[in-house]
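Sat 14:20. Reprocessing the chain from the morning session after the first attempt stalled halfway. Input below, unchanged.
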Amino acid sequence: LFAMLVTVLDYGAGNIRSLVNALKSLGHDVKFVEGPQDVLDAKKLVFPGVGAFASAMDGLRRFPGLLEVLKTYLESNRPFLGICIGLQTLFSGSEESSGAEGLGIIQSTIKLFRGDEGLAVPHMGWNGINVRRESAILPTTKPEERFYFVHSYAAMLDDATSDWVLATSNYGCEFVSAVQRGNVVATQFHPEKSSRLGLAILKRFIDSEPMVAIPPVMPLLPVSQPTQLAKRVIACLDVRTNDEGDLVVTKGDRYDVREQGSNSARGKVRNLGKPVDLAARYFEEGADEIAFLNITSFRNCPLQDLPMLEILRKASERIFVPLTVGGGIRDMEAPETGADLSTVKVYSALDVAGAYFRSGADKVSIGSDAVLAAEEYIASGGKKTRRTSIELIAETYGKQAVVISVDPRRVLVSSPDEVPGHHVIRTDKPGPNGEKYCWYQCTVSGGRATRDIGVYEMVKACEDLGAGEIMLNCIDRDGTNSGYDFELIADVKQAVNIPVIASSGAGCPVHFSEVFNKAKPDAALAAGIFHRREVAIESVKKHLRQEGITVRQ
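Finished this time. Tokens:
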């Protein structure tokens, strides 16, 4: 074994730290492209990325002459691995960015998933691949082996792509999930986020000897069965500073994180462990994603919360599945670090998100600021300003990087006429006074304040503004272990065409199968039952498999 110097082409968007950590975990060093000569000197070139097609191409144009040199590198059959947007830029163009020219190595256009058959877009989560040609980089996989995808646009099978196809997958249609011609390889999925299977692909790419010549094109291997997107099981860690000043994982009971009872611990912040160690344990136990929620960030500036950023950095060194971080994603003013307290600096939501991404996050979760943005959007009659945190982050990093975290309360009413202007549903759980209807009222500041906007209206507005996923909490169910709120989740799932994560209330494996079968979310999240080892992640997945629900092994 020897350390290879791997050249990475970073155009400035997304979580590049995950790829760097993955390469370093394999024992290799990384050099970033700073100009065209670095591409010419590369022995192995990796182009990762997320976000919009046009943004990626604009990023490549930052260095004069880089596009021409990159095309020459590719046309010369030199070792190249494109990841996600790194695959898509090989094409001549994309429906995502009309008029934006790609590298044109593959003369075809990237297409939008149409969202047919009720499928959520982006295509987000763990899907299988069907290997269609023999390759040292991507050997034949088993049906139960899955890789992490997150994209709204994809390459389709056509005459222009047929000679390049290495693997295909299914999501409402068959699409190209990997391409290869000679030494040029690209995957739509993220190897650096696909746990050990993904790391193995990176290792084979780096270790393989370059081909001297491009081999003849072989016929496509047949597909034995279509691939299927798995339901995700997500572990969530609420992180805050305890009374001793240490960052700990805690868990609330209806958002109250302080110990109850009459013993000496009463009133202290509930301490369930160290964030990085717990997250690493969940990765080893098979969590499909891990979410860190900085639950006191509404009071503090995350850019000055160096311990939280360090948690992300350390976690991304040990965890190779997607990481989401939430808390404080908004515009704010705070004293400059190291400056006089009277010197105030303005930080934008985009600044905060950028710091999280650079520290190892793949997605950011927006809470209170999303509620305010939705209110403004609805009040304006649906006008976009391109100034909200949702719009700015989605435009820069892609909609798949923007998660909306909603903290609603259930409000019972006797009749929809009591709350005109709000989306009201008939409930199967009548209130103490016989109320047969309810609506779900949004809250802000960690559930401490209510707003006059319902969840249904709020999530639809956020989707219009550019959000890519909904993390749907429920204050009434938080910490109760009584099961998810099926009525809330089903209502929101019907309202939007983006993925929905069910959260709050899980107490046993059966609760997961019930919510997937009854409310149809794309993922289910739990916290306390995992922290306290009351339920193991593998026990949840074993139960789901027994119930016929597809999950990652």
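Residues 254-259 have pLDDT under 50 and may be disordered.
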